[in-house]
Amino acid sequence: MEATKTEEPFLRHVETDVLIPKMMREKAKELCAEKVTAFNHCCKETGFLMVFKCREQNAALKECLTVHYRDSAFFEECKQEYIKEKLEFQRTGVAAKNRSQKLPTSM
């Protein structure tokens, strides 16, 4: 099934259930950066006791991440970004993570 510009391309199960949620997790970690940093700092400071001593930071981090995971608009935003990257890859053959790197210039 060929997708036109007005309709979305078909997404495979692995894309909707694995790849887009992975993108959501990465973006949510960026949006919750302050809480991620606080939790990481607590863990480094307390070592093996982190399970007990970092409960407050862990709960705050989980709450922040969960808000984003459950947000259907956030899912849609990530899905559209994924589709854009997928179409660009199909067009150029260059993965998104490699696109930002400088191409070598001839001397």
TrEMBL record:
Pfam family, one: Cmc1
A cellular-component GO term for this protein: mitochondrion
Cited InterPro entries: Cyt_c_biogenesis_Cmc1-like
Subcellular location(s) of the protein: Mitochondrion
Keywords: Disulfide bond, Mitochondrion
Superkingdom, natural source: Eukaryota
Keyword Disulfide bond on entry: yes
Annotated family: Belongs to the CMC family.
Name listed for the protein in its UniProt record: COX assembly mitochondrial protein
